[in-house]
Amino acid sequence: MTATAVLRPATTAPRAVTRATGESRLVRWTLIGTALVFLTLVLVLPLVTVFHQALAKGLPAYLEAIGEPDALSAAKLTLLIAGIAVPLNLIFGIAAAWCISKFEFRGKNVLITLIDLPFAVSPVISGMIFVLLFGAHGWFGEWLSEHDIQIIFAVPGMVLATTFITAPFIARELIPLMQEQGSEEEEAAIVLGASGWQTFFRVTLPNIKWGLLYGLILCNARAMGEFGAVSVVSGHIRGETNTLPLHVEILYNEYAFAASFAVASVLTLLAFVTLALKTFVEWQQRRTAAEAAGAEDISERIAS
Amino acid sequence: MSLRCAQGDRRPVYPYEGMTMRNRSQSVLPGFGVSLGITCTYLSLLVLLPLATVFARSAELTGDRFWSTVTDPRVVASYRVTLSASFVAAALNTVFGLLVAWVLVRYRFPGRRLVDAMVDLPFALPTAVAGIALTTLYTPSGWVGSWLEPFGIKVSYTWLGIAVALMFIGLPFVVRTVQPVLDDLEVEVEEAAASLGARRWQTFARVILPSVGPALLTGFALAFARAIGEYGSVVFISGNMPMKTEIVPLLIITKLEQYDYAGATAVALVMLVLSFTLLLVINLLQWAARRRMAV
To answer: Does the domain made of B77-246 have the CATH classification 2.30.130.10?
Structure first.
């Protein structure tokens, strides 16, 4: 009985609003109402619009727009690009978080700032830098064309730009988490004779799994939805170098609104899945943290 | 940037965290060389080297040529459009973001958790989708646009439309930066103010607002920084008229499409310098906020 009471998470308990520090019912509901109207205008209506327009010509037209060969090839390319960019950034994120959180070295703060850089760069400029490097007039342009390798206006350039844009996501999620957890547990494992990989998979990974999943989800959502950077390096060739967001643009500019919104609705569903997973992971993190806090409470009681 | 304010601050604090000496003798752990090597190589090849090309390519231009490119009237007009719309959007987001964060932290109402999850939508929704949806919504025949038309207000294909799109993109930055700070405010301080005779609005203006001030400023800076580089959501709704509704990222793309690499690079350099300055300001703001919290 007492144990369950202790284990109950205390972090999300609603704050008791006393008369001295609360607002009157009228003010409270006015504020809530204003916030909800604002969010409806800014967030909800655009969402409803997507599905309303997508189904404007009926369900058969909707299914046809999604099942069309160009849309399918765009979906395949989107999956391929995310399938390369996300694992690369996963390796990078884990390596960066490991060396930053487990070791002390000079220039660590500079390294953390450098990891953040892609977030500060406009997507258009992120695409442009690869055109400057690998485009026909770029630094490696001549060499590449002599060897008949195409990077810009082709899939490799799109993968590069997407990887650049999404590079910080997993690292940024893991670094604060692993810094907070310290390294006592890993040190104990090593002292007890575990190998480096055993320590990582059996000790570190279980501790960071929710944060890692969180980073992966956000990285993937951005990789699949990126528009500006990919637009610059893509050749915009239907069925070849079109991702789903670019396909949405092409259809929209051709005034095929219903088809454009139909493809957009698929991406919107992806966003819903992302938000749902994110909410679930947050809930799991809170639960784990509350359990850890509860366990410490118990051990403290036993000690006293 | 987005991540730090999106989730980094909401993690619960473990008890006794400060008491463990987590940095003592870490040499037993393996993998330092490999992990640092991977990190530095990856960053250099993917991020630093490509970004350096902007600076190197700009250096190829003579000073006069560079100056005349970045001060060309059409380019200057695009700075004006981008900066003014980004500023107005970030300012409105600061006001409404504080309201949303306040309502989510302080009040309990049906659907609160759903609303809380929805705030992150602009992070998760591809920008092109947001762009076409907002454009459709705000055209004179759209759901919102048809309400505004009788008043002579046009949103889609005007400067106002750019501001609306940038507001959509920037909202979560303010909410997610302010929310944890509001959550951590101690009710005791407000009770003390009330017991000393302060009216509720006085407590808000003199006690609560100064405490969330740094977070609000950080949220504003993050939303502004994101807005000046934004392309996907804006390009559909802006109408893209040179001198009037042309944003800087679009101008860079136009120059690239005309194979004017030197011009595109010069304008991009101006943007990069602005973005990196903002990144520095944001880091300083967050550092100052942490110091405040620590004291």
So the answer is: no
